[in-house]
Specification:
Helix content: 55-70%
Largest sheet: 3 strands, antiparallel
Strand order of the largest sheet: 3-5-4
Structural class: mainly alpha
Shape: elongated
Radius of gyration: 37 Å
Low-confidence stretches: 65-78, 179-183, 185-189, 206-213
Mean pLDDT: 78
Strand content: under 5%
Length: 365
């Protein structure tokens, strides 16, 4: 949008020139074009001024030479509807500008619950979102309700606001009246994310180019990508811990592999192939394994010791497979919880883990 800033400024210069020449229709046309290219507070103020002058000019031209006494009160220019916004939308903006604190902005009491506050925010957000409400000051009013809901739904910030907010607001309001400056919607309490991001949180990403946010322990909102990065880091740390726990087993496997260098081929294989085609089963845990056709003539070692090695290797393989099954199930359950998908969570929780089941059976045996 910054690329349109220069063009917007040129439109504003033309609008101000037409305003001085009392060509209000042309002035309004260029102001609206500037707002579309690069929205600013100055453009909103000038647009309101043009609307007021234009109405006054139309009224002057329609009055007869001899004015009659007006019986109806004049309507305040600020509450007039425009082609881009309704009278009701403008009234919402004016009411929020006049509000004294966050509770009044959301039209709730100080005893309101989180549910009441969120419900009030949703109702106002649909009226004030800049994509739907083009009234002057709507962007700042939208920011005001965003700040209000972010502060009042955070237990710690709401407590601080209730303690210090009222007195600070009185000082700011007095200063605003003396200097005729713009109302300070932050009131000394800024949120961690923007009003647009808060809108996306409450309405589930109804507008393009939105990011999904999640609330972490402690009340702080974080982007989903950041949460996933933290979770990945945590998983990495857990993986390192698991590696340390498995280190003795890995060393045992390594020593077994090193001892196999003294013979040309392993004595057995857990998988059938052309070289190891004769099936056998251990006496203890009934683990299937395969040997060569000349096994009975070449192998001179202890058959019981061989079968213990077969069972240990088979059990270690099962444990590794079980670890992968658990990791996959935990990942799917985590995703389901974060997206609030109960059906996906139920499916993830009931994922079958045949390797883990087999390990339990063997350990029981």
């Amino acid at each position: 949008m910054d690329s349109n800033k220069d063009e917007a400024e040129r439109c504003m210069e033309l609008a101000e020139r037409y305003l001085r020449e009392k060509k209000y229709d042309e002035a309004e046309k260029f102001i609206r074009k500037a707002q579309k290219l690069y929205p600013t507070k100055k453009a909103e103020d000038v647009l309101a001024k043009v609307a007021m002058f234009s109405k006054q000019n139309q009224k002057t031209e329609s009055e007869p030479t001899v004015r009659k006494r007006q019986t109806a009160p004049k309507e305040t220019p600020q509450v007039q509807a425009s082609a881009d916004y309704t009278k009701e939308q403008l009234e919402h903006v004016i009411r929020i500008k006049k509000s004294k604190d966050y509770y009044e902005i959301l039209s709730v009491t100080k005893e309101a619950t989180d549910s009441d506050i969120k419900k009030a925010y949703k109702k106002l957000a649909l009226q004030l979102h800049p994509d739907k409400n083009k009234a002057p000051g709507s962007a700042e009013a939208f920011k005001a309700i965003g700040n209000a809901v972010a502060i009042l739904t955070d237990a710690e910030k709401r407590k601080q606001y209730d303690m210090y907010g009222s007195e600070e607001e009185r000082v700011q309001n007095a200063h605003s009246r003396q200097n005729h400056s713009h109302y300070n919607y932050t009131r000394g309490f800024e949120t961690d994310i923007t009003a647009e991001e808060l809108f996306n949180i409450f309405f589930g990403g109804g507008f393009p180019q939105q990011e999904f946010y999640m609330r972490r322990p402690g009340g702080r909102w974080m982007r989903q990508q950041d949460v996933q990065a933290q979770h990945a880091h945590s998983q990495q740390a857990n993986g390192y811990t698991t590696f340390l726990q498995m280190l003795p087993v890995l060393l045992l496997i390594l020593l077994t592999m090193m001892s196999s260098f003294f013979i040309s081929d392993p004595v057995y294989s857990l998988h059938s192939n052309a070289k190891y085609s004769v099936p056998r089963t251990t006496q203890g845990l009934k683990v299937p394994y395969y040997v060569k056709e000349n096994f009975h003539t070449e192998y001179q070692g202890s058959l019981r010791r061989l079968e213990i090695s077969v069972e240990e290797e088979y059990l270690n393989n099962l444990r590794h497979a079980c670890y992968r099954e658990k990791s996959y199930r935990e990942t799917m359950m985590w995703k389901a919880r974060n997206f609030g998908d109960q059906e996906l969570f139920f499916k993830a929780k009931n994922i079958e883990m045949p390797s883990c089941k087999r390990v339990q059976e063997m350990q029981g045996a």
